[in-house]
Amino acid sequence: MDLSLLVQDVPTLVVVIVAVPAVLAAYIVGTEYLVRLLPDKLRPRVRPWFWVGPALILVTGFLVLPTLGTVVTSMQDRDGNFIGLLNYQHQLGGFPTGGAWIAIRNNVYWLVLYTLFVLFFGLILAVLFDRVRYESIVKSFIFMPMAISSVALAVIWGFMYSYQPADAPQTGTLNWVVVNVFHHAPVTWLSDTTVNNFSLIAAAIWGITGFAMVILSAALKGIPGELLEAARVDGAGELTIFRRVIFPLMMPTVVVVGTTLVIFALKAFDVVYVMTAGNFQTDVLANRMYKLLYQADNPGGASAVAIILLVAVIPVLIFNLRQFRAVEARR
Amino acid sequence: MRLIRLTRRVVLAALAVLVAGACAPGASNNPSPSGVHGGTIDIIGVWSDGELDSFNAVLAPWEQQTGVTVNFEASRDQDAILTTRVAAGNPPDLAAAPSPTLLNRFAQQKKLVPLENIIDMNKLKSEYAKSWIDQGTINGHLVEVFSWASIKGFIWYNPKVWQQKGYTVPKTWSDLIALQTKMKGAGDTPWCVTVNSGAATGWPGSDIEKEITLGQVGPDIYDKWWQGKQSWTSPEIKGSWQSFGQLLGPGDSNVYGGANYIVNTDFSKVGDPMFASPPKCMMLNQASFITSFFQKAHPELQPGTDFDYFTMPSQNSANEGIRVGAADAFSIFHDTPQARSLINYLVSPEAQEIWVKRGGKIAVNNKVPVTDYPDVVSQKIAKDLVSNTKQLKYDAGDLMPTDMKNAYWQAIVAFIQDQSKLDSILSGLEQVRSTAYTS
Q1: Which among A16, A79, A277 has the least Cβ separation from residue B198?
Q2: Given an 8 Å threshold on Cβ–Cβ distance, is B403 in contact with A297?
């Protein structure tokens, strides 16, 4: 490995190795010194704020303020004049096919199909491979797509879905099967509006199933063997054990993975951007936001879409927090 | 992590101030306006592969002469990168854009450096057609210059196949329609059309449609149309879409592979079925640049004998000789000596002939001799431009506001997929027109 790169930028190196720990240590020691100056009673109340302070400042600066800025922008036109909710009206008017509605519909498809199928496959694979000797090898293979960037994934599946007219040799894997095995006319996987959303979602599912499988498998391994033993002694069949013992114990993990997947589904962008660019009624909210911002030079409309997306994510976040609290309460 | 970066920036900034302070007295190597020595220039463009090689070949003599280091950054998603960098106050020194849409927007925001005092205007006026200078002038300032153009409205065919089958080049629109019918009667598929181009899917079809519009309604309505003053549902515009449908045939039956193939196949592959053996289509419509794709995919093809072109006939003979064209636009964001020197170089015939000789482009500077073009077909194009082109109109789609342009491209796709929806497609475009042109 060539380490000369590290030496080239000596000031950065010094900052990272010496200055950053020094500043952190100085902050902790300094604030502790200040806290010590306070009367005894106040100390426990003030100290946490000093410790949380840096994080609060960063979250405010990098998250809260930009979000508020987006809300303001979403009520402005291109020149920054206040236009009220007009941008939202453009996005949400024209139900069911105008404005952002196609994108919203597709996000619902993503939300439901992507989340359920990934959970389903992840759970099945985790439970079944738990029982075989070659578990780790198979799991590595299924996890492998996680190592591919989503863009590469989309390009690869673009080849899989490639279309040629019936009289030409099929270059796409799926259409080769359709034509040569099923003797059916080739399918335009990416432009036929009855299947194209599912084609995109299937590609994304292929990429993420390994992630769900690995986490669920870890949760499965955490279930004490005695419990399963006891259930078997009591005469429960394997299916009953799964339904009554394993699944309930894995539930907290399933919920965490599920909510993460829901957020992934709402954020879906790269696969759509690379494979269809939102054409042929496959647009999703994130891609629409991108197009409005960069291609249509319409920051107001893009911000309105961003806020719609944010509002859609909030219930999931609240659910997630409640779930965490419920788990904490059980301990 | 954030804290680390923040601290790093503060420290680096402090160091930079110190260093700058220490070096300031000795660092003023006042470059004379004419001769630049050393330094760097940041350029953002869209070229890659062969096109980037050609652009580098153009730059090489200038770099050697001036000693300037060029940092070229290429991205097909130029809109996003340039918009972000300009908004952040960090634009490149010079941008090379495939169409003026984006640069026009920056010109309106006064982000571009006016070029009147940078380029020798008298020389430019003597070497450039007035329409190219007008095209780059916004609010009274020259802010964009063009170096290489491509001419649209060319219909490509294989002369050997046509001779064998007894097809002749049509002179008028009705000849073209008659030829289509004759081809279909003989069991041949008249056209190859492919419009897929990622995020820009639809543009190759829009080229055909806008050429028809120009030939059918003439330059005045064409201008009103891209300016947003002509309704999409007006009989003139609707009529040109219907003519486009006439070429595609009912249910796209005049086109190889039908709608599915058209919308799913990349525009660069348009020639493949035509050069297959036996040929699967008889002709295709694409701008002059397509020859480089022909020759890359089929190196054995000889220009003139294996492929040749004729210009799309106009429906109204008064509009014959008025062509649609497009060109690479250059603009300066930072008025540096290096940028001044480069922009002057790019408008010169010496720079332009380098790419012309490499093929695929037509020089905008009229001092570039026809003999510079590498083959008979490109020489024919260059001659055509000089002698048979009465008026060159810039690509209407590229002049529309971006969301109008994108809606236009998507409408082309929708029309190819189902021609019977024309009325609802046009009224959809009309809706976009009502908001796209404001502010």
Answers
A1: A277
A2: yes
Query: Residue A201: which of A290, A112, A281 has the closest Cα?
Result: A112
Query: CB B2 to CB A90 under 8 A?
Result: no
Q: Give the residue among A98, A121, A99, A117 at the shortest CA–CA distance from A109.
A: A117
Mutate to test the interface with B, among A294, A298, A303 (most CBs of B within 10 A): A294
Measured CB to CB, residues of chain A less than 8 Å from chain B are 11-12, 15-16, 19-20, 23-24, 54, 58, 62, 77-79, 90, 162-165, 167-168, 188, 190-192, 273, 277-280, 290-298
Q: Locate A60 and state its tokens.
A: 């405010």
**B432 contacts: CB under 8 Å, gap ≥ 6:** B403, B404, B407
- Residue B266 pairs with which residues in a beta bridge? B196
Q: Which of A16, A190, A296 sits opposite B264 (nearest CB)?
A: A190
What distance in Å separates the CA atoms of residue B177 and residue A128, rounded to the nearest whole number? 64
One DSSP character per residue, B249-308 reads -GGGTTBTTHHHHHHHSBGGGTTTTTTSSS-S-SEEE--TTHHHHHHHH-TTPPBTTTBE
How far is C-alpha A97 from the chain's CA centre? 26
User: What is the ipTM metric for this complex?
Assistant: 0.76
Q: pTM for the whole thing?
A: 0.81
Residue A235 phi/psi, 5-degree rounding, is 95, 15
**Largest Cα–Cα distance in chain A?**
87
Enumerate residues 6+ apart whose C-beta is below 8 A from B64: none
Three-class SS state of B391: strand
Q: List pLDDT tens digits, range B350-409.
A: 999 999 998 878 899 989 998 899 899 999 998 888 777 888 889 999 888 888 998 999
Contacts of A15 in chain B (CB under 8 A): 4, 7-8, 11-12
Q: What is the pLDDT of residues B273-331, one digit of tens each?
A: 999 989 999 999 999 888 888 988 899 999 999 999 999 999 998 998 898 988 889 99
3-state secondary structure of B332: strand
